[in-house]
# Entry
Amino acid sequence: MQVLSSKQKKYLKSQAHPLKPMVQIGKSGVTPQSIQSIETALGQHELVKVKFIAFKEDKEAFLDVILEGCSAQFVSMIGHVLTLYREHEEKEKQKYRLPE
# Structure
């Protein structure tokens, strides 16, 4: 998995701006079920926002767990909202064309 360049991150941030968070991390923290929800959302949408309702002070600690569990790439963390990206395996189903 390649690392996103700053140009690619900027493009993805602009695409993610109007999106609403699809997954919320609540009082249970990051569980296998929340990882599975993020996985499903990434498989369908490629670009996903995750909102921390609880554990706001521990969100950086959970970041590595989420990235490793979902095989996703970090785009940004603004406030308590994390944006993740994972390219769709099938080229014809990819929604985003990353700049070089």
